[in-house]
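Q: Hi! New to this. If I give you a protein sequence and the SMILES for pyridoxal-5'-phosphate, can you show me the bound structure?
A: Yes, paste them in.
Q: Okay, here:
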Amino acid sequence: MSIGGNIDAVQNRINAACMRVGRDASEVTLLCVSKTKPLSDLQEAYKAGARVFAENKVQELTQKMPEMPEDIDWHLIGHLQTNKVKYIIGKVALIHSVDSLHLAEEINKQAEKAGCVQKILIEINVAGEDSKFGTSDMEKNAELIRNVSELPNVKLMGLMTIAPYVEDPEENRIYFRTLKEFLYSDAIRGYFPERPILSMGMTGDFEVAVEEGATHVRVGTGIFGDRDYGIK
Ligand SMILES: *Cc1c(COP(=O)(O)O)cnc(C)c1O
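A: Thanks. Here is the predicted structure of the protein with pyridoxal-5'-phosphate bound:
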């Protein structure tokens, strides 16, 4: 199928998931995860109507951004090193992957310099996998959120998680549910806007994530096909 056809198919599945749980499909934003993909693929997605793209590497993001139309919202979803923060501040709509106070402080510093307020999500390792960033210790996460909320040039918008890779997406339902429950818990609810963001769900499990309250789903393979990372 074409990239445009894939986007339609994914969007239809989001709409159906919303219907099943009585949500309005307009509450869910589909992020086209274009990492490793050539500009021609991004342009095809754009022509099909896509306006929200996500990349996981700063260098790739900053290379692609000037080559694409300006009415695109770019999201950074991958691990961010503090020394790269300065390249993306004010350019990305949202940074999904803030997992430490140190990183948030650098974002705050660079945003102040640039005269802007950078929107961010806190990345939470709900399943506690060693291979992922963030922690599953909710006390620590609440403390991080409290500290980040003090930074004037950073705006906390919500939470993000990368669920485990599983064959059966139902296995991840508990992690999505846990993340939403944490977001709406008394300990941290007050630090987020009235309509907070829950960035959860990828190609393998986005329907379950939508059923559990995702507001942003990050879909790569389901739109652009398999990624070729070459032989390492
Ligand atoms: C690559 C990536 C995705 C998309 O993964 P697919 O399984 O291809 O949909 C989503 N979120 C993050 C953080 C990623 O790095």
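A: The pocket of pyridoxal-5'-phosphate is lined by residues 33, 35, 56, 77-78, 162, 202-204, 218-222 (CB under 6 Å). Let me know if you'd like me to explain how to read the tokens.
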